[in-house]
Amino acid sequence: MPAACDPDVADIEDIANSPEMITDRSIPSRKMVMPRVRKRHKNVVTPPVLADSYIPGTQKIYLKTWGCSHNNSDGEYMAGQLASYGYTITDSKEEADLWVLNSCTVKSPAEDHFRNEINKAKELGKFLVVAGCVPQGQPQADYLYGISVIGVQQIDRVLEVVEETLKGHTVRLFGQKKQEGKKTGGASLALPKIRKNPLIEIIAINTGCLNQCTYCKTKHARGELGSYQPEDIVARAVQSFQEGVVEIWLTSEDLGAYGHDIGVTLPELLWKLVEVIPQGAMMRLGMTNPPYILEHLEEMAKICNHPRVYAFLHVPVQSASDGVLMDMKREYCIDDFRRVVDFLKERVPGITIATDVICGFPTETEEDFDETMKLVEEYKFPSLFINQYFPRPGTPAAKLPRIDPQEVKKRTKAISALFQSYQPYGHEVGQVQTVLVTEISHDKNYYVGHNKYYDQVLVPKDENLMGKCVDVEITSAGKHYLKCRLLGMTGVHRPAVPLPQPKGQVSGAIPMKEVVMESASTSQRERILMKSHSPIAALSLIEMFRRTTFRSVTSPYHHIWDPPYHVHNIESSSFSSYSIDSQEDAFLLTTIFMDRLLSILHISINFASYSFLVCPYKILIS
């Protein structure tokens, strides 16, 4: 039996019930002296263990995500699977029976917030599942002991982990998704999700990267590069637009590295996506490191000039010193970065280049920092993410002597002051622009749209504008935004997509399918209602019912169907039949389909209510 933290796990029950989950830390030796310590913190409430007969899918779940858009997409997928099963996703920590905390490991403060939430969940006596990059990168962290964990590539098994946790078991699922021995992008993009914003779809096109940056902990969690197939990405985009999405974000740890592992280039994928973007909808590109975008600059410029693609790219520089870049193992020099920025600014007029800098890397000298200051002053990046260096456990850079924290703060303040000293958007005042309105401002006083350059434009709050393209005149500019006035309702038009789904609705939900299974030799009839999150998947399951020969089905109420059986797809009015060899228990159906479904679906059975639950698809026997 594999150990509890082995990367490859045969079965979740093996972990949940493994005797190896009981370690030396669980039972003290008789020879140990256990001092009595007065607790100064709040008492930790142990969550009640639910009975074995509890009905899964009836509890309330609180889900919180930290970090990047990739992590947010993972959180949306987990919420979608849980909701499609029947769980209620709630924003109330107090009302929730179980918390799912989806973590970020990029910076120490983010991990600190994550740890604080874990402690809070324990104090409130909540069942707890942790996910994201922290447990994946540090599975042996002491504060994660005794807590159920789901790895970043195992989010399609969140239902199993949640169910076992509610039973009082501790489950740890790691491992990578592989196809023919090669790592893939991760869990299927066809899984159900609940979009945080019904107008925006976040699509992860790959996971991991090709670099070995010495300061980066994310590499420990996301691992080597794994790309999704172009057809899967395009299919997800098409489905999103069919559900009223007006803006798609492409995300990954390094967009430019996409396809190196599967023989596809990033521009090839982007052109396929451009073909399916409806009129008025937009696509935003994510973060790319300089080395892998250099070879595609010509094509990237053409793509960024396309009217349905934002002229925006996030290209982290981290430092303008070649020496520091070498110590970071960034695999490019500052001239490479300049070449990317200069080429795109020349070929894509008005393009927004966002970048990142790290202040206080252990080998950064005053001269190195001055080079970074000069770069920022020269390019006046409209979007600049300034980060203090934090040593992340297990990274090579963490072993280096640190710069005095006060010096790091001094440098951070200096570059922050430089960033605040210039006005990046003043030249746009007076321009007439078209903005796509998708969000609400933090203060709730404005709607937020973006122009072609992905500049943030504050729009007067009018519910008739949300999700629409609006013609405006820019009236003023702030440090991080533009303000505007409307040019009349004649300049308001909806992108060529349906109305968006209501907030909180599971993506992929379609009208109920009905499949009637009849016994030809008796008058008995059972009806199977299939609610599928993909029309293609629904038809595939119907076809498997039609083509597969399996044994007879017996219900818990001892009603036995007699062969032969017929399958009737009411929606398509098709009629087919197949024969049954013998009478067998209903649950044999699971065994028959398991091998064929396991790669894309996960099946479980609710014995109490006699419903087959095929996640992310539901087959309910009524």
Automatic annotation (TrEMBL):
It is an enzyme of class 2 (transferase). Transmembrane segments: none annotated. It catalyses: N(6)-L-threonylcarbamoyladenosine(37) in tRNA + (sulfur carrier)-SH + AH2 + 2 S-adenosyl-L-methionine = 2-methylsulfanyl-N(6)-L-threonylcarbamoyladenosine(37) in tRNA + (sulfur carrier)-H + 5'-deoxyadenosine + L-methionine + A + S-adenosyl-L-homocysteine + 2 H(+). It is found in: Membrane. Residues 426-488 form the TRAM domain. It is a single-pass membrane protein. Catalyzes the methylthiolation of N6-threonylcarbamoyladenosine (t(6)A), leading to the formation of 2-methylthio-N6-threonylcarbamoyladenosine (ms(2)t(6)A) at position 37 in tRNAs that read codons beginning with adenine. PANTHER family: RADICAL SAM PROTEINS, THREONYLCARBAMOYLADENOSINE TRNA METHYLTHIOTRANSFERASE. This is Threonylcarbamoyladenosine tRNA methylthiotransferase. It comes from Acanthosepion pharaonis.
